[in-house]
Specification:
By secondary structure, the protein is an alpha/beta fold. About 55% of the residues lie in helices and about 10% in strands. The protein is built from 9 helices and 5 strands, in the order E-H-E-H-H-H-H-E-E-H-H-H-E-H. Strands 2-3-1-4-5 form a 5-stranded parallel beta sheet, with helices on both faces. Helix 2 packs across helix 5, helix 3 runs antiparallel to helix 5 and helix 6 crosses helix 7. It is globular and about 50 Å long. The two termini are about 15 Å apart.
């Protein structure tokens, strides 16, 4: 089984690419969605979040208190690192468990923080979904109903796109004009060929 990690900055279109891969029958593990689920349901995460944030981390009926989590998370980079240290190892193991249940030749992990979190160590190949900043800003402001400044602020929290491109094994240009399907086909054939050589 080949494990592929897909990443990309805000508005680059990684979820769009992952949906195209799903249409090809390739299972996709979405780290953001699964992290949210695990923060609600995993007892180890629950215990550690309460230790760090206090009882406010969850409401009286044991529902994740998102505003309290967000307030702590965005207060400082140190706080964000603390949350990541609690959540990321559990997500990493959950991905491994999920992968073991799949009966396909290829699986995909979708992660905004693929390199920052070390999730790239859990996959065989990595793909960066790339779009020019003006395209990303336009997409993200419409999608999230946010201002350009708000999106730029969120972008500043992420690893630089050019740096991600240097780390990634492959890059998909999603600028609205370059053919996406051709790029996907080329990358999948390259990955398949490299696996056969091993």
């Amino acid at each position: 089984m080949i494990k592929i990690g897909i990443t990309g900055g805000i508005g680059a279109g990684k979820s769009y690419i992952c949906n195209l891969l799903r249409q090809r029958g390739i299972p996709v593990y979405n780290c953001d969605e699964e992290a949210k689920r695990l923060m609600k349901d995993n007892p180890l995460i629950r215990e550690k979040l309460i230790q760090v944030i206090g009882k406010d981390a969850y409401t009286h009926d044991k529902v994740l208190n998102k505003p309290a989590i967000a307030k702590f998370l965005f207060a400082s980079k140190k706080n964000a690192a603390v949350i990541n240290c609690i959540v990321h190892p559990v997500v990493k193991q959950d991905f491994i468990d999920w992968t073991n249940k799949q009966n396909t030749d290829i699986v995909v992990q979708e992660s905004a923080l693929l390199f920052e979190s070390g999730f790239d160590k859990s996959v065989d190949k990595t793909i960066e979904v790339y779009a020019p900043i003006e395209v990303r800003l336009e997409r993200a402001t419409i999608r999230d109903n946010s201002t350009v400044q708000q999106i730029k602020s969120r972008m500043a929290q992420q690893m630089d796109e050019e740096e991600k491109r240097r780390y990634a094994d492959f890059c998909i240009i999603n600028d609205g004009t370059t053919n996406i399907e051709e790029q996907i086909e080329f990358i999948l054939s390259q990955i398949a060929t490299s696996q056969k050589k091993k």
